[in-house]
């Protein structure tokens, strides 16, 4: 059992919703990013997805896309993200997941990446442009977190469930990442359809930004993922970097409140 | 028959998109499989090809060009004479009909030179559908004429002002729209790129070019040509003319954009200089750095300015069924002038790349041999760009001097 799986399952056992944060590795700069990650842990964040800058992030909305392009302009890549993950590992104790588009992984080689992830304590991998059938073709010991969506037909939900992952990333909308209001009935209906198929943690992501949303969905999902909302705060406070970590910590603490039993 | 059930041509192809989009792709595939052999669908498409597009397009013997080069006989497949001025309409009408059958009311397209955008806007107009076209802001500047044409046709043109500001990022944006709107929208991909089943569908709709050439050449010459040349960006006009010849003893040559030279960022010679990678939903050859970031590209021709290529081309290169070469901006512009002067045909800058290779190849061959060039589009859209490039004073090109 991994740290990631244990910690998410333990919270579910206590009927507590887990809060998973997404942050782009090393942006706006490595030190500030690290301070924000410490703030996430301080605020009560339960797991962390580290995003890898990619030139063509087609599953991402405008806010996260801007971070990708900034990463590209700063010359960042998968190797830098793994080096950065090593620093994160030394600074905080929360479980780490890598969120990377497929092409950089293909160039590095899956085995090289798997070893690097093990070395820096990354427990699992989310690849937004690798659908379930293509994941099945990749041979590695590193865990893949499958994604499903409200559009997923039953047999695709079954495929995700059969992977028995630490969690299933349940995309909330037919769309890309970004803060928005969510279609409550559709989201709940599909989570309820998936639930009996699996023991895996169901993590609801894309569009989560408020404690109210977490209240709405906490009985349907076991975890929520927050990403674009944090990126927005980072953009807003970038010119006042000394205030940024505190803002992040406050935001996480506020989101964490309705997560409690 | 390729692709296989998972959308692979050998090692290339597949479906590398967010899981959210998979149901949309499965629907398109299923609907296409049903309609592909449906006589009503075929006859409706043929009606549009004949009475709306003006097919079959002529296969024209370029007498003066042939004489001036003094080698192989050169024929031009006149896709430039299609309604909207390029081969792109063959695919957009086919996919628009498919989308209508699926109950979709809106078409989304990505465009580089604007030819595919215009062809999609046209199909949307004639079928009574809504249309949104994504176009890089750099391309909008160099293809202003096509932007206005799309707007005239009732399409919404959305400028994409990020990343490369060309076709690559316009395609990302079109995908993002499609992920959100596929309940009522069809993404009408304009080349043999993208996730399965697009490379298959676009190839099939464009194959009408090669089928016609085969029949027309047999009628005129009683045999098959020795060479068939086509420019390759994403590769749809090339796939369309090559496909019916794959099992024949015909040398097929794809001509890529060599731009300003082989330095990274200066060309779009994906098959000559690229490596395996995943972009826009397929595993194919790509121009990228060693860390898997997609490279910037350059070509004088907006329609070839793209770092990827269709997976079936990657496969055909690997299988050595097609040879891929590249010509520079300068050679393409010279060919653009040469064909204009020698035959009175102003080619699209994209197609001028295929002409440029023919200018080099023909003199090395015997007059008993023959070359068919896919003249995939006409060059009206490029005139403004060429005024800039040629310093507003087009002088006679050396290759185009014809002594009668």
Automatic annotation (TrEMBL), chain A:
InterPro entries according to UniProt: Aldolase_TIM, RibuloseP-bd_barrel, Trp_synthase_alpha_AS, Trp_synthase_suA
SUPFAM superfamilies found in the cross-reference section: Ribulose-phoshate binding barrel
Family, as annotated: Belongs to the TrpA family.
Subunit architecture: Tetramer of two alpha and two beta chains.
Annotated source species: Syntrophomonas zehnderi OL-4
Chemical reaction(s) catalysed: (1S,2R)-1-C-(indol-3-yl)glycerol 3-phosphate + L-serine = D-glyceraldehyde 3-phosphate + L-tryptophan + H2O
Lineage of source species: Bacteria, Bacillati, Bacillota, Clostridia, Eubacteriales
Protein's UniProt keywords contain RNA-binding: no
Protein name: Tryptophan synthase alpha chain
From TrEMBL, chain B:
Gene3D superfamilies in UniProt: 3.40.50.1100
Gene that encodes the chain: trpB
Cofactor annotation: pyridoxal 5'-phosphate
Superkingdom field: Bacteria
Organism from which the protein derives: Syntrophomonas zehnderi OL-4
Recorded family membership: Belongs to the TrpB family.
Protein name: Tryptophan synthase beta chain
PANTHER family the record matches: TRYPTOPHAN SYNTHASE, TRYPTOPHAN SYNTHASE-RELATED
Pfam families assigned to the protein according to its UniProt record, in alphabetical order: PALP
